[in-house]
Hints:
- The strands form 3 sheets. Strands 3-2-1-4-5 form a 5-stranded mixed sheet. A two-stranded antiparallel ribbon has the order 6-7.
- Among the domains are: about 25-185, Nucleotidyltransferase, domain 5 (2-Layer Sandwich), CATH 3.30.420; about 290-375, no CATH class.
- It has 19 helices and 9 strands.
- Helices cover about 40% and strands about 15% of the residues.
- By secondary structure, it is α/β, with parallel strands linked by helices.
Amino acid sequence: MWESWYEQLVKLPQVTIPRCVHSFSNVEVTSSLHVFCDASAKAYGACAYVVSKTCAGEIQLTLLMSKSRVPPIQLVSISRLELQAAVIIDMVAQINSNLDQEFGMDDVRYWTDSSNVLCWLNETRDLKTFVANRVAQNHQETRLGPWKHVLSALNPANAITRGLAVKQLQEQSLWWHGPQFITLNPDQWPKSFAVPTPDTFREFKQKRAPFAEDIIPSYCLAAVAGSPAHGESILTPKVTGTWHKLIRVMAYVLRILRKDPRKSLVLEPNELQCTREVQFRLAQKEDGMKLSDKELQTLNLGVHADGLIRAHGCLAHVKKLTKPARHPIIIKGSSLWATLFICHVHGKVFHHMAGVEQTLAEVCKAVWITKGQEMV
């Protein structure tokens, strides 16, 4: 490792760092600042980008500065390190004080891929001391703009926490130029969001559980307040990215729609089961599934009391099987719901070590996916 690091030093002169923030002259320029942060067991840090736009529509995206630190010797959870990374964006204050007179930042945005950090930053009561102190410090430093969630794949701060060889650094467009979506209008940014996890709740004092209204992501409320079509466009497999997030997010939305009096964010098994059924109904509706479909006639389809199209094949007479396995829900293999569900079963149950037959057998305990073997 030492020899590899030493060999990289010779190549460092090949790396050039542009110092010009933007090359526009004698034109009116609007500038916005975007700060990304991330953390890992090896390091945590943040990086800032300036987006400069002219009235003529010319755009320039520039890496302005970055800051990194190594984690303490004492073991600290990744979630807390992510919060530490969110705190060191005090460099933004330095940027504004040094450049505001010349450029003037019209907008400042902060980005993280940590769901836990976003939940803590939105909760100001009854946090444990470590988190509460850093949240208070962050609120003082980031009063200039809001926090947003970014997908990990689009977070340029990953380069800080994972490290790059010199050659990789030279070719890393995401690091030098930032994610291209920040050059677009805010309504065109990718829709991403934070979902509370068990780690989120461990940093709350035991005397009070966080209220759902305090911590449920704002996009859930937007989905409820908007029209049904708008809500469905937000809560889709393409947006959420994983089956786990899709189910949990929809469960929170359904809880709000029902005006459920429960304050705890802990979702009960019956809520999750109800949400799964809702998603499968949406999948069947989206695919236009009907009992008269020729490709599904051999499955002897029928509509159950829950509104789902299920199979009534030979397995219906095997009493040792569970009810969902005897009458599995039918999903077309071409749907995004099928892809997410297969990935969920493969990753959660078998930890990415199962083969095709094992994964397919587990999937079929509840769902029958057309062309399932091919999809797995």
